[in-house]
Amino acid sequence: MPGHLTGSAWVVSDGVGSPAVLLTHHRKLDRWLQLGGHSDGDADLPGVALREAREESGVAPFVPPGSDRWRLFDIDVHAIPARGDVPAHEHYDLRFLFFADREQPVTVSDESHDVAWISLQALEEYTDEPSMLRMRGKWMESF
Asked: Does the domain at residues 3-142 carry the CATH identifier 3.40.30.10?
């Protein structure tokens, strides 16, 4: 198995206060990550990222203000360990920028242990994943 295309959502809080990102504590990987999932043959990767974010969090993200299109924010290739009868493989992850209102209630899907808004300043308390810290750096430089 060479790998899977995945679409992920880097969902940042909209509005006042210190910026936060909406993350899931992934059940299978036992790590805090951005929302997202496999494209399963769907060529609309921004749509995949948006759908997965809604399904995994219950939150309705939206595209950046002043824009009528999604924004490709990051690309990452990372190894996924073997699990059950699925061999180790790579994810080719296209990550899109979305915003959401922090006041929306979050729900936890069966794919997660938890879903939470995490302050960008406190991100290292939840993850040391280089690509997550890279996305935070890109956000801080751009906005």
From this structure: no
